[in-house]
Amino acid sequence: MNRARAAIFDVDGTLTDTNHLHVVAWWEAFRQAGHILPMPDIHRAVGLGSGDLIERLLTADRDREQDAVISAAHKTLYGTYYDRIPAFEGAGDLLRALAERGWSVVLATSASGPELEALRRAVDADDAIGDTASSDDVAEGKPSPEPVQLACELAGVGADQAVFVGDTVWDMEAAARAGVRSVAVLSGGIPRADLELAGADAVYQDVAELLSRLDDSPFGRTVS
């Protein structure tokens, strides 16, 4: 009988306190291209891949040749934070606690390359992380189910043997479409009601609270 279980984690806003750094970097990237956008609108789009985020925030009649320039500017601006990215309290401890309990820990993130390396350094739990499904590995990012499905494949489990933890509605929608139970954290700044409406099975303030309540969380219940 296969008793493998996968604990799948988003990173930005979930394990690392980086959502608002992304907002500032995107705001400046858009400004440089001549677009002044409200920061709350950018915030709600964080978690989407770069192409989808730009598509969501700019009008359809824009000069699409700017998209690559805006994306590159965001990447450069956000890169200035790499050496000081903060992990949330308890992030690494949570991943290690789950690994010690027999869960295969997999990251499912839109980050890749040097950005992903910087995030992993911040979390400082490589000893607990089994694999990563990054934006380089999928054709579509969240809210497509593809990142979550790939994470399940990497862990060698079915959807009913996995739990996904994220902080955005895109995370919750991706998990729901993949048929995976989802846990939401409020640390990314998205309202509880929005996360529940998007399909969250449980909501916690942050990963520290999830760690403190692990036994009565979806991770403490039997996975079929």
TrEMBL record:
Leading EC class: hydrolase
Organism phylogeny: Bacteria, Bacillati, Actinomycetota, Actinomycetes, Kitasatosporales
Cross-referenced Pfam families: Hydrolase
Gene Ontology MF: a single term: hydrolase activity
Keywords: Hydrolase
Record protein name field: HAD family hydrolase
The enzyme's E.C. designation: 3.-.-.-
Superkingdom of this protein's organism: Bacteria
